[in-house]
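so im writing up the methods section and need the DUF4939 domain-containing protein record in one place, dumping it here so i stop losing it
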Amino acid sequence: MVQTIAEQHSLIQSHEVVLRALSERQEETNQRLDQLASLLRDLQPTHPIHDVRAPTPEKFSGEQGGCGGFLLQCSLSFNRSPLAYPHDEAKISFVLGLLTGKALRWAEARFSGPTEFGYPNKHDSGPYEI
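--- predicted struct ---
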């Protein structure tokens, strides 16, 4: 029994050594995290970033020759306000909201729902002409 107590004492001491080493490493890691957090705070801009809104393009009815200018104006809106259009669905919604007439009828036939932009209508076979 005396040997068992001595073995347990030795085991506890070895655990204490390992725990101290782990504690020291944890402290080093915490210091590094504090340094990184400080660096990130220093990299933050001193003034907030604002989107600069471009004027809303005129609505597009599908008239021949007007598409290029309409798409250019839409691109300007996307580039000037990237936070407002973070993904393609937001851009598609913006463009679809500006369609009228023949162009709107095309969009209604092309998309099966207001949020299903990646999945064409089951009757969709292309090509798409306005």
